[in-house]
Amino acid sequence: MGWQSSQSFAWDQLQPSQLTSGSQMRRAFRSVVSTPRSWTVRVRSDGKETSLGAIVESDGWILTKASQLEGEVTCELSTAERYQAEIIGVDGKLDLALIKIDAKNLPTVKWKSDADPQVGQWLVTPGLSMSPVSVGVLSVARRKIDPAPGVLGVQIDDAVGGALVKHVMRESGAEEAGLKPGDVILSVAGEEIDSARALSNFVRKFLPGDRVLVKVLREKEEVTAVVVLTDPQMLIYDRLREMQKKMGGALSRRKTGFTEVLQHDTVLRPEDCGGVIVDLQGNAIGLNIARAGRTKSFAIPANHVVPMIQKLKLKEYAPYNPLKDARQHTVSATTSS
Predict the structure, then answer these.
(1) Do 31 and 92 fall within a single domain?
(2) Phi-psi region at 68: left, alpha or beta (left = phi > 0; alpha = psi -120 to 50)
(3) CA angle (318 as vertex; 314, 322 as ends), nearest 5
(4) What is the DSSP letter of 323?
(5) Within 13 Å and on the Cβ side, how many CA atoms surround 276?
(6) Last residue of a domain, which of 200, 230, 260?
(7) Lowest mean pLDDT among 14-18, 77-81, 252-256
(8) Which of 123, 190, 215, 284 is the most exposed, having the fewest neighbouring CB atoms within 10 Å of its CB?
């Protein structure tokens, strides 16, 4: 279809029949993503879809969402070609990762960083297929998203030499990592733990989505596990979590602590973050970084993303490795106790 000026409001540009069908609505935007889909890759970790990515340099440099990555990373192009990828650099503040594949002469992102779209304008998320992954409008102009503290997802008490795990919360990072009631947590990210209070105070320095190495004493044997920290709200409010799943799907683990974001109402899976979001001219105005609510997603503006490419390429930011001191790779959240 022929699009009007990008200054027009979104709903004025579609036929009534296109507003009642999600697939028809996405199909109407195929011309917008005909080029951007060629810059887009599907990122998998250990064979599982984890994020989208954006090709930023033609010899195989790709940006994606950092906190989604773990294990063996591969990328699939819009041409269906698949490559193994190496994580080169990670910036915890923006939750960005630069990865590298062995490929040449790839199409690259066309950024637009000189001006933001206006509230109410269409924004489109390309995937690998001809139709976009999702379509929405800019709902809130750029703003800061304050950090929330990460939590392990355990109820704890004091123990000799550490913190005793009394209960492991359902769907928490601790449960996924295999922590059990009766474990005594001895250290987190290299920091020795001598009490329940010390554990709580230390973990609060990290963000949801951060990975930390946890050492526990289990039946007289020391065991280590990498725990992905959880958003405390989604643990406390079981009904909220279940309602969100039924009404709009899962939210991103890391969705707070960003200096500036563009908020849009696009419905994205967490696995569809990490790639670009474009205006109606197909220009990338930012990188989708988090699904934060039923109709609330965040994108890092292009003027924050572009300067990071060379910094990550030159390894000014180390690749994330929870077996090292995680404090070097994550953002300290300043929160009240």
Answers:
(1) yes
(2) alpha
(3) 160
(4) T
(5) 32
(6) 230
(7) 14-18
(8) 190
